[in-house]
Amino acid sequence: MNLLQRIDHWGESHHPKWVDGIRVLLGIFLFWKGVVFIQNIDVLKAVINQSPFITVLSFWLAHYIVFAHLLGGVLIAFGLLTRVAVVAQIPILLGALIFVHTPTGLFNVHSESGLSILVLLLLLVFLIEGSGPISYDGYMRRHPA
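Below the sequence we write its predicted structure tokens.
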């Protein structure tokens, strides 16, 4: 059994049901952030343009962020391909912490960096834990086609 299979087995056997509620809330939050980014796409592009070496990619990067949050939020909430959706979210949160929150003061009183750190930590937890028993993936494991 390789390392990934052992991590998956451990995550499935040590997964309390209340963690699935947190996963659903995380997915809803990410979907909501995607909607907020759609409503403020010009502001998102302006924030991306503040970094000098990403300016060329601002259009594509802004749309990737929106798409990843919308689709990833839905996938995480339903527990479908959870680890794939989490892997798509992690670079976005790391970029937000490094390029957006650090220059403005990482731990200011009214900063969203604490929320970004919390979401990043939850994403790392679900990268290891997986989707859990109360999910579409869990249903498919119990009822194979």
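The chain has seven helices and no strands.
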